């Protein structure tokens, strides 16, 4: 909801994303502290305001952290544009999950040329760090961070399974680690995709796993075609 005055927050329903119009509030003023307290009392989700040339006072940041009210500042903001852009996601968060799967289908309709192309496309699709590893846990392509987390006990148990299947686990740092096997035949998987993302809602994690399965299927087509080519060359 657009908001032109701090006191309007009191009239808004719980879980509202409050978007202040330009000039309605300034981060360095005491009005921001009042807005945070009112947002907490009414159960608002977050406060969006125009960015200021001055830094947000430390006391204001501490207050926002203590009351769990996110402060989002945007330069040259237009409240109407922001409300229109966020509205569908606020009212139906599942839309963002559906778009992840749709993007995956569109991007991986044509198999990638190599592992790095796959990883680059997957990074853009699910907005997370990704990597490709082999069945021994060695890095093939992608982020070292993902490779290291896949080596944790939970990851090793998934990779070593005789019947590979997608899976996920949460680290002590509240990061979700998702593993997806790439197979061209039944049995164990020689290659795995790994994605690491900050803990997210279950519907979003499901969408990420579906997008990774589409990517894995696309790459398996590439592997199968290369295998067929090698077999033809061997016969000759």
Notes on the structure:
The protein has 236 residues and is α/β, with parallel strands linked by helices. It folds into 2 domains: 2-91, 3-Layer(aba) Sandwich (Rossmann fold), CATH 3.40.50; 94-235, 2-Layer Sandwich (Beta-Lactamase). It is 46% helix and 19% strand. The chain has helices spanning 30-42, 58-66, 79-91, 94-107, 115-126, 144-150, 153-159, 202-235, and strands spanning 2-3, 17-20, 46-50, 71-74, 129-134, 139-142, 167-170, 175-182, 191-198. The chain has a 5-stranded antiparallel β-sheet with strand order 6-5-9-8-7, with helices on both faces. β3 (46-50), α2 and β4 form a beta-alpha-beta unit. The protein is elongated, with a radius of gyration of 23 Å.
Largest sheet properties: 5 strands, antiparallel
How many discrete structural domains? 2
Helix amount, in percent? 40-55%
What name does CATH use for the topology of the largest domain? Beta-Lactamase
Distance between the termini: 69 Å
Identify low-pLDDT runs.
none
Strand content: 15-25%
Number of strands: 9
CATH uppermost class of the largest domain: Alpha Beta
Strand order within the widest beta sheet? 6-5-9-8-7
Shape: elongated
H/E element order: EEHEHEHHHEEHHEEEH
Counting DSSP H or I runs of 4 or more residues, the number of helices is 8
Q: What is the CATH architecture annotation of the largest domain?
A: 2-Layer Sandwich
Radius of gyration: 23 Å
Mean pLDDT across every amino acid position: 86
Structural class, from secondary structure content? alpha/beta
CATH superfamily of the largest domain: GAF domain
